[in-house]
Design a protein that fits this description.
CATH architecture of the domain at 1-83: Alpha Horseshoe
CATH superfamily of the domain at 1-83: Tetratricopeptide repeat domain
Strand content: under 5%
CATH topology of the domain at 1-83: Serine Threonine Protein Phosphatase 5, Tetratricopeptide repeat
Radius of gyration: 22 Å
Shape: globular
Length: about 260
Amino acid sequence: MDLNKEFLEKYNDLMNEDVEKALNFSINCLKESNNPDFYSYIADCYMSLEDYDNSIQTLKLALNENCNNISFVKSLLGESYFYLGDFKESNNIFLELKKENPNSFFVIAYLMDINIYLEKYDYAIELGEEILKSKTLNNNDTAYILVNIGWIYLKYKNNLEKSFTYFKDALNIDENLGRAYIGLGEYYYSIHEYTDALINYEKAIDLQEGTIDVYFGIAMCYKALKQYEDALSYLQIVHQADSTNELYIKEIAEIEKL
């Protein structure tokens, strides 16, 4: 089968049904055609299976055999290195892609995350500000970048007021952005405004952003408000999700005494 609309439709159907089937289908198509562009779809399957080593090997074959979809292959390669924790190699690949397309939301979003892991927080902010100034993003992507910058200021730069501004700006664009409400929850908790923190954490849960950290944040708000039964109920939720976490165990013991 050629790499055409028919292939893509069947590939997407198989990916939704069973990744292994999509993988075997793509491998067979490669064998039949010897078209190196099929390597990217084989690698995509490996990535879905979290087999990033095989994904990288496959993508390198695509590049060595002069595939046509080079940018797509490089983006998958950068992602694979990212999920393997090789942030320096991932960074090098995404910087190459940035030269080709400086206003790619996908590329900038990954570069920001990579540079957070590399502890290059100012550069991560610079990347975000640069693409915001380009005015090339749609509203959803703009809000995402604003939230990313807000989190950097909150968690790594310890600049609460700036983080607050970015979270609010993001919500002015997309009022259903759960990560922005989590950020505001953290902000209000940091300044001891526990009721406001609760409101924002609960809004995040309503938007299906109820991570363990959110439930733990709610528990700590109730503890600070001396509503110990509520605090304990939320701590039991996070303890069920991670029964080995020593902090959760310690907090449960302390609140039970209170």
